[in-house]
Amino acid sequence: MKRSKFLKLTLIITTLVLMLTACTNSGNNVDSNTANLVNEPKEGEVLTVEVTDAHGTVTVPVNPKNVVSLDNRTFETLADWGIELAAVPKAVMPADSPYVADEGVLDIGNHREPNLEIIAAVEPELVIVGQRFANYYEDIKALVPNAAVIDLNIDVSETTDTAGENLVNGLKDATITLGKIFDKNEEDQALVAEFDKAIEDVKAAYNGKDRIMSVIVSGGNIGFSAPASGRVWGPMYQIFGWIPALEVGGTSSDHQGDEISVEAIAQSNPDWIFVLDRDAATSSAADAVPAQDVIENSPALQNTKAVTEGKIVYAPKDTYTNESIQTYLELFNDLAKALGK
Question: What is the pTM of this model?
């Protein structure tokens, strides 16, 4: 009888030990997996993420405080995500940007004469540099040595043969970088996927033979946005395989386009004319001439195929000061619709 009770007691103890061991092992597995997925900061430390910018790898705090952004390609994304900014260059931003209207957001001025001391005054944890302010990168780093400074500038200069690839990858990489920093990983992936689809839609809509003329209208004058190098339109010749209606030597990425006679445009007789209205984004003058009026009322262009058939596409009015991924999405969708008719 005693032997039977002893065996039962032994069995119970053995079972309890095995159950305790299994639970301990299971708990260890969960902790190990969690450690691999989440890099939780130690007490008193800030959660950070490593990102790659135009200069290399930078460690940036997640959801940083007192953020300054100087890159026109970021404003709409940050606004859509509800990110608060401490200072921006309001003089070179779309007038309807919520950051421009917010008096609590300080204005550092334009890129020609910026007041960089304002950046130091807000004591930022992060400064986003890019596009117009890329040349101030080293100055800003020296000014705020304790802040993370990232440069999201995209090289689409006339010296490269990969302007189209650089623009596409640059916009996507910048979006993913911002998503990592501000913990918007689902939002950034959705935005990139939509962008990729828009590119494919334009490629599918273009018939591969129509000849394209791209121009910039500024101050009532028509400038040439050359394939590859031209502002906004140039890289798209490479992205979409467009056939240019006109090619000339010595072109640039000038913000007003290269000088070209309206007669030269007319003689090229393009199938399509794509237009960037610079004044629509920069001019506050009530008497500024809209690009549409300049193009459609030009006597020299009236007999071109693009004008007579109404094959003209205008970039969104704020494009010149808002070259965000959302701007290109809107533009690409407009191009796909027009080309697909």
Answer: 0.82
